[in-house]
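Write out the 3D structure for:
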Amino acid sequence: MKLDLRKDYKDIYTYVVRRVRTFDPSKNKGPGKATAPISQIDLGYQCDQAGWVALVFDTRPKAKPDGEWQSYIEENRFERHRWQEAFELLETKAVDFVLSDGSKHKFPPYGDGEDDNFEEEYFAIFGEMLKSVLLKARTEGVFNSL
């Protein structure tokens, strides 16, 4: 299996832009009151037991990184099924990745239990890609309208 994260990068960036452009405080599916301004934006993901990204707008007056956004994943999730497929396949087979910057990375199977850092490295690839998406969105002024 080959997983090309360049496509995911583009798709997720488009998802972020669309979510920001269509944000309607009266219909917000996130923590806080519908009439309050956004105080925090959370971008979460899962790439092992499921594959998704969720952008959640928090309008609580004193929002903090307390995990409350996780109660709103279902309403805001953007599916990435191949992430979970790759993780499951890695139990027995290698998976080739093309990272969002075009570089390549091959994960060997982890089923032998020899690589204690496998999950950390696997999760970091997705986290770094999402960080890059958010930095690009910030640089391009995507969040300015909020």
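DSSP finds four helices and six strands in the chain.
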